[in-house]
Design a protein that fits this description.
The complex is a heterodimer of chains A (about 280) and B (about 130).
Chain A lengths: L6 H51 L1 H59 L5 H16 L1 E10 L4 E8 L8 E3 L3 H9 L3 E2 L16 E7 L2 E11 L9 H41 L5
Antiparallel strand pairs in A: 1-2, 1-6, 2-3, 4-5, 5-6
Chain B lengths: L3 E6 L3 H11 L5 E6 L2 H10 L4 E5 L7 H10 L8 E5 L4 H9 L4 E4 L4 H12 L4
Parallel strand pairs in B: 1-2, 1-3, 3-4, 4-5
Chain lengths: ~280, ~130
């Protein structure tokens, strides 16, 4: 037979039961609060949803959004157009930069060529420099420089690179392309350098008169270009030729004049020395 | 500012001036000129160079001989060398490159091409 519980045991159990009951009550209270909070949240969301739905259905608001969208599209297009413009400007600047660079290079070539041509009064040195310019700056492989004898009305080769000098030792003014250039004073440029097939060994691709103002003193005739040089003449070549036409003529003429005057001076000095008795 | 010492070896005064004129467009460029390989070796014994531009056909000592000596000299073996020549065939180019040239430019020289090559070899930005 089970022994009836004593007083203190019963009291302890009752306290435990009351404690559990109290915790249960607290838990229930918490649940009720949470429930209340969630209900409030649902109502809030419901209201927000209704407002949003209303807004979406609101024609005025929709129009406003559409207007904004249109404006944004226009702005985008304007920006794209501006971008294209800037891009075109950049391209233009890049092209201009290349042009300026090319022009600088051309000017450097022209400066060096004219500086060298006028750096001496020695006729042979002038011819050597002219030869260097035609090979190194123009890229000519076979060419000749001829001087005009105004009395005989004929051209005499003083430089012949890659061609036999004796083959055109004398060319009458008016004979062939070279003679014709000497007669007219007009430069000759073969229009199709790449496809050019000379009918005669002395058919030039370029023939320029060396002249001081309108007075022709000689001819530069180019028969072929160096292998690596593109088979065409570019702008700088034409500019070099046009520069050479004037500067080479002046340099040749000055050096010839100088050598003549030197000779004369030497002769006169000889006479003076003879007359004054220094020559004895 | 960085300084670059260039040695231009060319017997033609016209070409020498043109090459020097082009190189002077680089900031900090100092140019020393020599008329042939022998003169160039003398200049090399007196100075340190960042780059050499040399012609092939020259009196006394040509550019290829100069190149082979430079490549064997421990003081200058690493100096970039640009060979310029009127001989523009592939075989000529190969010959120069096999001897240790860093670049080969056929004449007539285009200034911008020369500058581009120099900038590439010395890693100079625009």
């Amino acid at each position: 037979m089970e022994k009836p519980e004593s007083g203190p045991d019963l009291f302890k159990k009752t306290r435990e039961f009351l404690e559990i009951f109290r915790k249960g009550e607290e838990f229930t209270q918490d649940l009720l609060k949470e429930n209340e909070r969630l209900r409030y949240k649902i109502v809030q969301l419901d209201e927000e949803f209704k407002a949003l739905k209303k807004g979406m259905n609101d024609e005025g608001h929709l129009n406003e959004l559409q207007e904004t969208l249109k404006q944004l599209k226009e702005e985008k297009q304007a920006l794209l157009d501006r971008f294209k413009e800037v891009e075109a400007e950049n391209k233009d600047f890049a092209e201009k930069y290349v042009e300026v660079e090319e022009e600088n290079n051309n000017l450097a070539n022209l400066y060096v060529a004219s500086y060298q041509l006028h750096s001496t009064l020695d006729f042979n040195e002038v011819l050597r420099i002219l030869q260097e310019i035609v090979i190194n700056l123009v890229g000519a492989d076979r060419f000749a420089i001829l001087i005009l004898d105004e009395v005989m009305n004929e051209l005499t080769a003083v430089v012949a690179e890659g061609v036999e000098e004796k083959r055109f030792r004398k060319i009458k003014v008016g004979d062939g392309v070279i003679g014709d250039v000497a007669k007219t004073g007009e430069s000759y440029f073969q229009p199709d350098v790449e496809g050019f097939k000379p009918s005669h060994e002395l058919d030039p691709i370029v023939c320029i008169p060396l002249k001081i103002k309108d007075r022709i003193i000689g001819i530069l005739a180019v028969f072929s270009l160096l292998e690596q040089k593109s088979k065409k003449l570019n702008r700088v070549d034409y500019e070099l030729f046009s520069m050479l036409a004037g500067h080479a003529a002046t340099a040749i003429f000055s050096s010839k004049l100088y050598s003549v005057s030197e000779r004369k001076l030497s002769t006169i000095q000889g006479f003076i020395d003879l007359l004054s008795g220094k020559g004895k | 500012m960085a300084e670059y010492n260039f040695l231009v070896v060319e017997d033609s005064p016209t070409m020498r001036q043109l090459i020097s004129f082009s190189l002077k467009r680089l900031r900090g460029a100092r140019i020393v000129e020599a008329g042939n390989g022998v003169e160039a070796l003398k200049k090399l014994s007196e100075n340190k160079f960042n780059l050499i531009v040399a012609d092939i056909n020259m009196p006394l000592m040509d550019g290829l001989k100069l190149l082979s000596i430079v490549r064997k000299d421990p003081n200058h073996s690493q100096v970039p060398v640009i060979i310029v020549s009127t001989e523009g065939t592939e075989a000529d180019k190969e010959k120069g490159m096999n001897l240790g040239a860093n670049a080969y430019l056929p004449k007539p020289i285009q200034t911008n091409e020369l500058l581009r090559t120099v900038k590439e070899l010395l890693k100079i930005g625009d």
